[in-house]
Amino acid sequence: QVQLVESGGGLVQAGGSLRLSCAVSGRTFSNADMGWFRQAPGRERELVARIGWISGITYYAESVKGRFTISRDYAENTLLLQMNSLKPEDTAVYYCAARMATSYEYDYWGQGTQVTVSS
User: Fold this and answer.
1) CA distances from 68 to 49, 63, 82 (A)
2) Residue 91: which of 118, 73, 71, 64 has the closest Cα?
3) Are 50 and 36 contacting, i.e. CB atoms less than 8 angstroms apart?
């Protein structure tokens, strides 16, 4: 089992920055990768970025490439998402998720944190 708790969301003006954190507990050694997803009202949930928990290999959606940075802190068992140059279209609920090495899908999800970017 893996438990995920997000924090760091809030209201920011366009062009501003936020950093999201996801506290990870449980069987972290079994993680294959972790990701940040987001879901805006009336839209499907989309993958924003993911990182291999051991390898550190990253992937970014085109819409956030060059503005967002995903990272993990082993010492603190934390997944991070640094978001710079935020745009109103980044407004969404952001979720962190973990995929186990034996799974093809993300098995564990946090409760989500709201990010609102005003124009």
Assistant:
1) 8, 9, 5
2) 118
3) yes
Look at the block and give the residue holding tokens 């972290």.
Answer: 28
pLDDT tens, per residue, the chain with 119 residues: 889 999 999 999 999 999 999 999 987 767 789 999 999 999 999 999 999 988 999 999 999 999 999 999 888 889 999 999 999 999 999 999 999 888 889 999 999 999 999 99
**Residue whose token pair is 């949930």:** 45
Q: What are phi and psi of 95, to 5 degrees?
A: -125, 140
Q: How far apart are CA 49 and CA 35, in angstroms?
A: 6
Q: For residue 41, give both structure tokens.
A: 């009202």
